[in-house]
C-alpha cells in the first residue's frame, strides 16, 4: 500500500497542539513534503471579546485595562498557555542538543520580532533586556554568554552597582519574551493557512490516529507515513506509550498589570525560583515555583504572598514610586498593597518534566485500524524550556523524518 497522499505528499499526523506540536506540524507542513493533520484534545485560542472578564484595572492614563484569561485549559492537560515565556537558556554547558534547539528558536523568534509579527493586534515577541541575578557566581561560565548580544556583567558594589539584597552578580543581555498563548494561536493560524488540518479528539492510544484520519477527506490514500508524538504529559497515559518517566513540575505564577516593565528579571539560587516576565501586552508574569511530581492544582496563598514580596525586591519598578534605595520612596508595605491591587490572576501550570530529559527518538506502534506498524517520532518532555527550544526541536523531528538522499 502506498503512503503517498493524492497531492504527492505523505500523510503525517502530529498528536498534540501545544507549542511543540504546533511548531513541529508547521515545519512539516511548510516543507511541502507532507500533508499534516494535528490531532489534539485541546487548542489554545485567544480570548474573545465575549469571554468572561477576570479583572479590570484603571491605567494611569485613565483608560481601563480589561483582562480575559488566556489559560483556561485544565493545567494538567496542557502547559503551553501557562508559560511566560522568556528566552533564558536552561541548557547546561554539556547539553549540546538543547543548546542547538535554543539557538534555532532564538533565531526564529528574533526574525518574528524584526518583522513586527502580531496576532490579535498584539506583538507575539518582544525584544528587551534580560537581567539574571546570581546569588552566587556560577561555577563555570554559562555557554550562552558567548551567544547573546550586549552582555554586561557586574559584581555587587562594582562601579556603584546596587543590587537587591543577597545578589552577588548581575548579568544583563538582549533577549526576547514570547507571549506563549498568543504564539500558540499564531502557530495554529499559520498551520491552517499552509493547508494543515486540525482534528479535536482525545486519544486513548496513538494508534487511534489511524481511525481518526480514515474519516477525513484526504484524497485517495489515508495511510499514515508517520505519527509525531507531541502529547507531553499525555504520554504518561496513552495506552501504547505509557511513559512513566513523565511527571508534572508544578509552577504557580501571579499575573499583574504593569505595562512599565521593560526587562525580564530572574533570580538564580536560593530556595525558590523568582522571575518577572512582561508579555508585551501590559501583563507581567511573576513567578514562581518548580515542584516536581506535585499535582496540586489549588492556589497556595502563602506562595502568592512570597512571589509578590520577592519579585518586588528584584524589580522595584513594578510599583511606580517605590525606590528602596531612595529616602523619599513609599514604604515597601504600601508598595505591596499597590502591587496587589494590580493582580489580574493567580495561575498554577504544570511543566511536562521527564526523568532522562526530552524524548526525541523513533519507535513503532500498531495502527488501530490496519493492525500494521506505524513509525512514531517522539518529541515530548520539554519541562521548563519547551517554548524557548520549540522551533529547534521541531526541526530536529523533521530531520529525523525526511529521507536522506546522497
Ligand atoms: C508556570 C510555567 C512557566 C513556564 N515558563 C517557561 C519559559 O519561560 N520558557 C519556556 O521555554 N518554557 C516555559 N514553560 C514550559 C513550557 O510551557 C512547556 O515546556 C511547553 O509548553 C511544552 O509544550 P508541549 O507542546 O510539549 O506540551 P503542552 O503544551 O502540554 O501540549 C500538549 C498537547 O498534547 C495534547 N494531548 C495530550 N494528551 C492527549 C491525548 N490523549 N489525546 C489528544 N491530545 C493530547 C494536549 O491537548 C496539548 O495540545 C513554563 C511552564 C509553566 C507551567
From TrEMBL:
One of its GO terms (molecular function) is D-amino-acid oxidase activity. GO terms for cellular component: cytoplasm. Keywords: FAD, Flavoprotein, Oxidoreductase. The keyword Oxidoreductase applies. Its cofactor is FAD. The keyword Flavoprotein applies. D-dopa binds at residues 351, 384. Residues 12-396 form the FAD dependent oxidoreductase domain. It comes from the Eukaryota. GO terms for biological process: D-amino acid catabolic process. FAD binds at residue 231. InterPro entries: D-amino_acid_oxidase_CS, DAO, FAD-dep_OxRdtase. PANTHER family: D-AMINO ACID OXIDASE, D-ASPARTATE OXIDASE. Belongs to the DAMOX/DASOX family. This is D-amino-acid oxidase. It comes from Smittium culicis.
